Amino acid sequence: MTSDTYYAPYDQDPLSILLAALSLTSCASSGNASIKSATLASIEQNVRDGVTTKDQVRAVYGDPLQVSFTDSGHERWEYIYEKSHASVGNYIPVYNAFKYSHSGIARHLVIIFDKGTVWHHSFNESPVNRSSSFYR
Fold first, then answer.
1. CATH for 28-133?
2. Which residues, at least 6 apart from 77, have a Cβ–Cβ distance to it below 8 Å?
């Protein structure tokens, strides 16, 4: 038995296809997922100056995104996580040829060690807005 009706994938409602494409391409994240949902309270619970060791930090947050040293020789670990989504204007034909933008949130944890123990640490969360434009 054969069917007289054939539906090609491109015969679907164009708006449905556009919405599906937007939902797949509109978000991006990068960095250390271990601080994805971190708050100041959760950081303060896990990292305590003069008490928490490198091994304890690594057990909770994994390897840092970047390791460096201060001028005084202290080891400095950085954890960075950023999640953003594309602005609606990016999907408007012609307009998107001249401007691209996205916004979201960035989390940044810096831990400085002295002899294997946390000496100082800081955590901040801030909005991120980035755009590029054909015209400056």
1. 3.30.1450
2. 57, 64, 66, 67, 110, 111, 112, 113
